[in-house]
């Protein structure tokens, strides 16, 4: 019974994955998602957070520090999850999946890019909710880019969103 349910959920997820991934050949979408995905990458998230910590004044510097702590803690959870739940990336498992050149080879669950972007934006959104109008669409686009580029399943992105947001919230709450 459980195996049947898991199989149906996997089939549903593969369908969602392919719905977005099949648009890979559209040049403008491909360019956009290849660009936006880097905003959730290590260079941008770490670099931008470090720059904001260095150059901002209080209280914004505090927000940037909370963002950085959230990023570090959430990344530790991502590393742990990838070891505990090794899941192949969809381009290795889903027939007809399209993928970028030189794709990542590590495990896909959860999405580190999605976790990173949500972990760094959450403190800012909690302190200044109006920023959510700009930051959440950006973060969602980073998550969608990971599916579009063939690197993550929708559940990888969803869990990354939850983990990143949770750590952003916890750091603000306890800091």
Automatic annotation (TrEMBL):
The chain crosses the membrane at residues 31-56, 62-81, 157-174. InterPro entries: PAP2/HPO, PAP2/HPO_sf. It is a multi-pass membrane protein. It is found in: Cell membrane. It holds the Pfam family PAP2. The keyword Transcription regulation does not apply. Keywords: Cell membrane, Hydrolase, Membrane, Transmembrane, Transmembrane helix. Residues 62-172 form the Phosphatidic acid phosphatase type 2/haloperoxidase domain. PANTHER family: DECAPRENYLPHOSPHORYL-5-PHOSPHORIBOSE PHOSPHATASE RV3807C-RELATED, SPHINGOSINE-1-PHOSPHATE PHOSPHOHYDROLASE. This is Phosphatase PAP2 family protein.
């Amino acid at each position: 019974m459980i195996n049947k349910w898991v199989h149906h959920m996997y089939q549903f997820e593969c369908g969602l994955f392919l719905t977005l991934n099949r648009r890979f050949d559209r040049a403008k979408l491909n360019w956009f998602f290849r660009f936006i995905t880097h905003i959730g990458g290590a260079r941008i998230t770490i670099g931008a957070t470090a720059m904001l910590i260095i150059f901002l004044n209080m209280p914004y510097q505090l927000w940037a520090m909370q963002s950085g702590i959230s990023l570090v803690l959430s990344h530790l959870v991502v590393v742990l999850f990838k070891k505990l739940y090794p899941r192949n990336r969809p381009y290795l498992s889903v027939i007809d999946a399209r993928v970028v050149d030189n794709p990542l080879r590590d495990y896909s669950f959860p999405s580190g890019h999605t976790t990173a972007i949500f972990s760094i934006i959450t403190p800012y959104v909690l302190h200044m909710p109006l920023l959510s109008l700009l930051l959440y669409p950006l973060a969602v686009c980073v998550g969608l880019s990971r599916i579009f580029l063939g690197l993550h399943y929708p559940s990888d992105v969803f869990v990354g969103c939850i983990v990143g947001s949770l750590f952003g919230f916890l750091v603000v709450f306890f800091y």
